[in-house]
Design brief:
The complex is a heterodimer of chains A (235) and B (123).
Chain A lengths: L1 H9 L2 H10 L9 H6 L1 H9 L3 H5 L7 H17 L5 H23 L13 H20 L9 E9 L5 E13 L6 E8 L2 E8 L5 E9 L15 H4 L2
Helix pairs in contact in A: 1-2, 6-7
Chain B lengths: L6 E4 L5 E9 L13 E9 L10 E8 L4 E2 L5 E4 L3 E5 L25 H6 L5
Parallel strand pairs in B: 1-7
Antiparallel strand pairs in B: 1-2, 2-3, 3-4, 4-7, 5-6
InterPro entries (chain A): Ribosomal_bL19 (IPR001857), Ribosomal_bL19_sf (IPR038657), Translation_prot_SH3-like_sf (IPR008991)
Keywords (chain A): Ribonucleoprotein, Ribosomal protein
Family (chain A): Belongs to the bacterial ribosomal protein bL19 family.
Chain lengths: 235, 123
Amino acid sequence: MQTMLRAMASTSLRQMVSVALKSRALAVPVKLQMEVASPLLSSSVALQQPWWRQACKPIWSSTVQVHLVSSTTLKLLLQKPQFCLRAFCASVSAAISSVHTLEADEDAPPATLKTKKLTKSVKHIMELLDKEAVEAANKVKVIPNIKPGNVVQLKVEVPENKRRVSVLRGIVIARRNAGSHTTFRIRRMIAGVGVEMVFPLYSPNIKEIKILDKRRVRRAKLYYLRDKIARLSSC
Amino acid sequence: MIQTQTYLNVADNSGARKLMCIRVLGASNRKYAHIGDVIIAVVKEAIPNMPLKKSEVVRAVVVRTCKELKRKNGTSVQFDDNAARVVINQEGNPKGTRVFGPVARELRESDFTKIVSLAPEVL
């Protein structure tokens, strides 16, 4: 661009215009007239692109604005040859300097919204996949919000030998949140023996979860029930 | 994870109350027994006037462990005690006629179907 300016300074007006037209920064001279007419259209097209593409828009595409500025000034130059050379150079240099500001204005979202470039892309992809899996599982069947202290009744399908639906009951003593592998732990006294079972919340084997009772507890994990009397674990 | 010197409760009415594991069967120098494994145990405590007496060496199958049993579908089961059920001979026929307490479903795969059918609860 600087070489072009120097070239402009040394040559005549007409020569300068032709040089400017041929130069790479003001490429596509055929479209000059059209661009003058439709500046708003081109900028609106640019804004319709998604935000992540706007943020990393290449610098060459912003020369649309340069086209507009220079094409208007070129038109003025052609119409009024007494237009000052210095003014033209100033406008071009202003266009060059304003490339960055124009780019920022054109595709900058509102000042309060910050877009973050995710450098750890694989981790982000895994989190997205996990969220999608959870949402998909929630759409298939309604899973209630199980909290520790709830007495729940499960209907679990046993696919191994006989496709029988067994009913299991117990008090939830722990819940571990891990996205799609969220698990919860159930405790119950069966035939005089305490039994604890761990289930994944989104397991397809669990046909139904029903909350029977909610006990008031002041802990997230109720492992103290193992040491307490059997009556507290029975339900 | 039953190993030698582990005390186990007895889950049937064969006459014993507590057993102590003296050998884990399966391979030489095998360290631990899980649910469904056969162990050789000695009777440490027995009910009086029953066929099984104290310090009698018997074979038993482990039916409950405090160590959780992990299944391939992501669930796991653990019990509050270690318990075994007394078998009498090589074929695995049980000595007692009743089973006390719940048992795990994995026993069915280890050809202990009689125990599973007698159990009050199979998990």
